[in-house]
Design brief:
Two copies of one chain form a homodimer. Chain A has 208 residues and is an all-alpha fold. Chain A folds into two domains: 46 residues, Orthogonal Bundle (Arc Repressor Mutant, subunit A); 133 residues, Tetracycline Repressor, domain 2 (Orthogonal Bundle). Chain A is 75% helix and 0% strand. In chain A, helix 1 packs across helix 6 and helix 5 packs parallel to helix 8. Chain A is globular, with a radius of gyration of 20 Å. Chain A starts with 14 loop residues before the first helix and ends with a helix. Chains A and B meet through helix 1, helix 6, helix 7, helix 8 and helix 9 of A and helix 1, helix 6, helix 7, helix 8 and helix 9 of B. The first copy, chain A, binds a DNA duplex (30 and 30 nucleotides) through helix 1 and helix 3.
Chain lengths: 208, 208
DNA sequence: TCGTTGTTTTACCATTTGGTCAAAAGTGAT
DNA sequence: ATCACTTTTGACCAAATGGTAAAACAACGA
């Protein structure tokens, strides 16, 4: 009788478990991103998921558990575009592709963007460790790559940290402040104009 | 017996009224900006203001009333820098001064910035009318000014709406996402570096 | 000093909300 | 069909929270 792993073997999640946890997390993403952590209620999540509240609490230890699980699961996907920056690529192209990917994520995953925005706005109380352990090293690596490009004069001189901040700010703005953007712009597809602008912006900033 | 105004004369607020309403609004700014509308409680606001909860409700009709009053009072101050853009000034200087003023406000009034950010993130449910009635006309005017400058070839060709969005995004980012910025940058004064970066960014974007 | 008005507090209330518990209803292998 | 196990539910709870009522208190002019 071989034991698959150590003492506390976590039983593999059943099909039902997988399905319902996914249902709950998707519902929670919807609700948390719309109302923030405090503004969201378990009842809303339960209704959105099509499950009863006690059933939700059968799969998660509590509201906070759901929120933290969500943030953890999304963090990697959220940072993927930055990981794809190739130190050996053409600097300007690499950065512009990063901008483009971030803008696409803003359009395709606005819920995720708002979820993170909400969390950071409140001072990152439930994700602070990730900022240090996951985000900081990745950003430091990227900063080094950019600084090398600057040192090699392959892009114009800029502060790498603030460059990254500006890319985050300008791209996520279209998801996080959508209500404002929609109120001010009548075009049907704002993102097309946004991409043209951002392409120009970073080309002019970085071209040598 | 002259009546100072029409039927329902609103009595002038007493000194106590003025003081306490100011106390409450300042406390509410602190609490709302930190926890968002749903996350803030009347008890927190009362404690911060040094008043009892029923006393708070003597001066305001309810939680929502406080929030709306805050947003209304702050809106004008928040938009002031954009109003100061001078159509007859030097285009690049005018825009850079606007960027600088917005960045300063991000540093000096981060609570106000986060209050608005929270509200917009939630879909602007309590401020939507202001977006239409106050912000939209002002932005339209500014867009016209910028488009004129572009037409006169006094600045490089850019989409005015997206230029404005990018200025908002990049400057407010330092207030709204402060938790993230602080986690990633060790410099004592981030805003100095931010200003150098933004000055460069918009100079390179707009210089003819 | 009295009465009037404006201000503050004490004691409550109703609802919402995160969470619990035990029983009931599946589910699947033998 | 049975048994062990997982999943779901209805009923409930305690705390938090927005808000109220009425009495107590303060301010101030006549």
């Amino acid at each position: 009788m071989p034991r698959p792993s150590a003492e506390d073997t976590v039983p593999k999640p059943s099909r039902i478990q997988q399905r319902n946890r996914a249902l709950i997390l998707d519902a929670a993403l919807e609700v948390f991103s719309k109302h923030g952590f405090r503004g969201a209620t378990l009842d809303q999540i339960a209704e959105q998921a099509g499950l009863s509240k006690p059933n939700i609490l059968y799969y998660f230890e509590g509201k906070e558990d759901i929120h933290v699980t969500l943030l953890n699961r999304l963090m990697d996907a959220w940072l993927a575009p930055m990981r794809e920056i190739d130190p050996n690529g053409q600097p300007l192209e690499e950065i512009l592709r990063y901008v483009q990917r971030k803008l696409e994520m803003s359009r395709e995953y606005p819920r995720e963007s708002r979820l993170f925005a909400n969390e950071i706005l409140q001072g990152a109380p439930r994700i602070g460790s990730h900022l240090d352990r996951t985000l900081k090293p990745l950003v430091n690596d990227t900063v080094k790559i950019i600084e090398d490009w600057v040192a090699q004069k392959r892009i114009a001189k800029v502060d790498a940290h603030h460059l990254i901040f500006s890319i985050w700010a300008t791209t996520q703005h279209y998801a996080d402040f959508d209500a404002q953007v929609q109120a001010l712009v009548s075009e049907s597809n704002v993102h097309v104009g946004a991409w043209e602008f951002l392409d120009t912006l970073y080309r002019r900033l970085l071209s040598v």
